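#structure-requests
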Amino acid sequence: MRLRALHRWSAFVIAIFATAHIANHLSAVGSVPAHVEFMRVARHFYREPIIEAVLLACVAFQVVS
């Protein structure tokens, strides 16, 4: 796979996380209970060690490439 394609895919992974992160903050605009519920559900995904490792690897790859 070419460097450009890898760069694009890692950016896509980061964009998915960033979208979820922003949605988390925007849910607080609706109500605090909605925000807490969103965080409770999302925490199961973004606090998984493998997902954290992939996300950090993607960020590092973006910096290096």
